[in-house]
Amino acid sequence: MLIFVEYVPVSDDSKELAPTDTEREYLDRKIKKLRKDSPEMVYISFPGDEKSTGGCVAAGRGFFHINSHGGAEPCPFSPYSDVNVKDTSLREALHSPLFTALQSGDILLEEHDGGCVLYEKKAQVEALISNNT
Ligand code: SF4
């Protein structure tokens, strides 16, 4: 298995380091060729494949991330947390107010310009977390 992880900025300062749409399209073409030429391998492009596989899989929709302090975050690229796994079970963390709001809204499925929907919509995520704390 080969996993390609695109650089995803988490601040405006590093936004220009993210691949452009043209670079993402290039990577997409290369991975399609690899899949065709070497089908015995599994290739995953993250977050590149998410648009064609049903949208963002963060916030417990497919996975979530636990930071080094125990905070349960939607994704490493969306570093917001309102629950700590030191204080709760993983099952309960999956139903935190932030995760519940993200899973029940449309944000994870929304169209977006860049590689990461939660980065593009970070103002909405920050509003959700401040509403719930
Ligand atoms: S938060 Fe961004 S990188 Fe993480 S799963 Fe969602 S779209 Fe992909």
Helix and strand arrangement:
Elements: E1 2-5, H1 21-37, E2 43-46, E3 65-66, E4 72-73, H2 90-93, H3 97-104, H4 117-120, H5 122-132
Helix pairs in contact: 3-5
- Major sheet: size, sense and barrel closure? 2 strands, parallel
Instruction: Sketch the topology as an H/E string, one letter per element.
Output: EHEEEHHHH
Instruction: Please tally the β strands and state the result.
Output: 4
What is the overall pLDDT average? 89
Q: Give me the number of helical elements.
A: 5
Overall helicity:
25-40%
Protein structure class = alpha+beta
Distance between the termini: 40 Å
Indicate the proportion of strand residues.
5-15%
If you compute it from the alpha carbons, what radius of gyration comes out, rounded to the nearest whole angstrom?
A: 16 Å
Q: Give me the side-by-side strand order of the main sheet.
A: 1-2
Task: Give the cofactors and ligands.
Answer: iron/sulfur cluster
Q: In total, how many domains does the architecture comprise?
A: 1
The geometry reads as globular
Uncertain residue segments:
none
Give a nutshell description of this structure.
The protein is of the alpha+beta class and 133 residues long. It has one domain.
